[in-house]
Design a protein that fits this description.
GO terms for molecular function: ATP binding; ATP hydrolysis activity. InterPro entries: AAA+_ATPase, ABC_transporter-like_ATP-bd, P-loop_NTPase. This is ABC transporter ATP-binding protein. Keywords: ATP-binding, Nucleotide-binding. This protein is α/β, with parallel strands linked by helices. It has 2 domains: 218 residues, Rossmann fold (3-Layer(aba) Sandwich); 62 residues, ACT domain (Alpha-Beta Plaits). It contains 11 helices and 14 strands. The strands form 3 sheets. Strands 6-7-8-3-9-10 form a 6-stranded mixed β-sheet, sandwiched between helices. A 4-stranded antiparallel β-sheet has the order 2-1-4-5, with helices on one face. The longest helix has 18 residues. The protein starts with 5 loop residues before the first strand and ends in a 10-residue tail after the last helix.
Length: 311
C-alpha cells in the first residue's frame, strides 16, 4: 500500500502557554487539492510552518510520503515546494535571476534547469517577462514567479500559505488554472491554507480549523449536506424574544449568531411564510439561502466565520 502524500497524527503546538494546535489528525491523498480553511488565529499558519519544516515538531507526527519531518527533514524538503504568504522574491533581480537563485539552492543545473524553466515559464505565461525586474511586476505576476520557484525542483507536494493574498480575481483564476494543471498533468498534491470561503469551494477536501482544533473534514458538498435543507437568517432587535416565540408557537429551534437569528429547515419558503404570519412584529429582515461553508462553520463553532476571537 502506497503511503499518504501527507499524514498528520495527534499534532499539537504551543507558543508559551497558548495552545495554537490541539491534537490535529488527518491525512491527504496523492493528487488531492486540499485546503486548510479557518479564520485568522485558527491555527492554519502554525500547521503550515510545521508541514514546511520551518518550525520543529514537538508533539505528534507529520510525514510526507512516508518520511517524517523530525527524522528525515532533508528528504522531506526535497519532496515539498513552498510558496509563502509573504513574498520571497528579490525585487532587484529579474524573473530569470530569481529562478536561477532558487535552482542553486536545490542543485538544479544544466539541461534539467533549462527544461524546467522553459516549462514553468510557459505554463505560468511568464516567457515574455523572464528578463523583467521583479519589482516592476504586478502582484499577480509576482505570485506566478513564486509558484515557478516552488515547483522548480519537481516536488511531489506543493504547500501554499494564503496564496490568493493581494491578488485580483483574474490573477486568482490564473493561479487556480495552474494548480489544476499541476494536479492533472504532473500528479502534484496541492495543500494550501486559506481564509477565503469561495476559494475553499475549489478543493477536493477541506479541513476547517478553529482555535487550533479540527472541527470539520470532508468535501465541500459533503460538509454542506451535513447542514441539510435551507438556511434562514433573521435580523431582529429582539433576538432572544424571537427565538423563544419560534420555539413556543412554531416548535422551531433557532440560535443567535452575531446578533442574527439563524435556523435550518427542510422547507425554506414555507417556514418563512409561517414565521411572518406568526412573528412579523419581531422581524426586521429575513433571508433564505442554501447551506454554505459559512453555515458549516457556524454549525460547528456557534459563531460567524469572520468573527474575531480573543485568544
Amino acid at each position: 500500500m502506497s503511503p499518504r502524500a501527507v499524514s498528520i497524527e495527534n499534532v499539537s503546538h504551543f507558543y508559551g502557554k497558548r495552545q495554537a494546535l490541539a491534537d490535529v489528525s488527518l491525512s491527504i491523498d496523492p493528487g488531492e487539492i486540499f485546503v486548510f480553511l479557518g479564520p485568522n488565529g485558527g491555527g492554519k499558519s502554525t500547521l503550515f510552518r510545521l508541514l514546511s519544516t520551518l518550525m520543529p515538531l514537538r508533539h505528534g507526527s507529520i510525514s510526507i510520503y512516508g518520511r517524517t519531518v523530525t527524522t528525515h527533514q532533508h528528504e522531506v524538503r526535497q519532496q515539498i515546494g513552498v510558496v509563502f504568504q509573504m513574498p520571497s522574491l528579490d525585487k532587484k533581480l529579474t524573473v530569470q535571476e530569481n529562478i536561477d537563485q532558487q535552482a542553486a539552492l536545490y542543485g538544479v543545473t544544466g539541461q534539467t534547469l533549462k527544461d524546467r524553466t522553459t516549462l514553468l515559464l510557459d505554463k505560468l505565461e511568464l516567457t515574455d517577462r523572464q528578463n523583467d525586474i521583479a519589482e516592476d511586476l504586478s502582484g499577480g505576476l509576482r505570485r506566478r514567479v513564486e509558484l515557478a520557484k516552488g515547483m522548480l525542483h519537481s516536488p511531489k507536494v506543493l504547500l501554499l500559505d494564503e496564496p490568493s493574498t493581494g491578488l485580483d480575481p483574474a490573477a486568482r483564476q490564473a493561479m487556480w488554472r495552474y494548480l489544476e494543471f499541476l494536479r492533472t498533468d504532473q500528479g502534484v498534491t496541492i495543500v494550501l491554507t486559506s481564509h477565503l470561503l469561495e476559494e475553499a469551494e475549489k478543493a477536493d477536501r477541506i479541513a476547517i480549523l478553529d482555535q487550533g482544533r479540527l472541527v470539520a473534514l470532508n468535501t465541500p458538498d459533503a460538509l454542506k449536506d451535513q447542514i441539510g435543507g435551507d438556511t434562514i437568517t433573521i435580523r431582529t432587535r429582539q433576538p432572544q424574544a424571537l427565538i423563544e416565540k419560534l420555539k413556543r408557537e412554531l416548535n422551531l429551534t433557532a440560535s443567535e449568531v452575531s446578533d442574527l437569528v439563524r435556523l435550518e429547515t427542510e422547507d425554506g419558503p414555507g417556514t418563512i411564510r409561517t414565521i411572518m404570519q406568526t412573528a412579523s412584529d419581531l422581524v426586521d429582515a429575513i433571508t433564505l439561502a442554501k447551506p454554505s461553508l459559512e453555515d458549516v462553520f457556524i454549525a460547528m463553532t456557534g459563531r460567524q466565520f469572520t468573527e474575531e476571537v480573543t485568544p
